Amino acid sequence: MDIKTLKNFITIAENGSICKAAKELHMSQPPLSKQIKLLEDELNVQLFDRSTRGVELTNEGRLLYTHATSLVAYNDLIMRELMDAGSETIRLGMITSSVQYSLNLIKNFYEEKPVYFEITEKNSFELLNLLENNIIDLAFIRTPFDMNKPLDYIKLTNDHLVAVGRPDFFQREDHTITLPELAELPLITVRRWKKYIDMNMSTFRETIHYKFICDDNRTSLLMAMNGMGVSILPDSIVTEDLPQELIRKKWIEGGTFKTSIYVVYNPSRTFNKYTDEFLRFLLDKNIESDES
Question: Least packed by Cβ within 10 Å: which of 10, 78, 180, 265?
Answer without folding.
Answer: 78
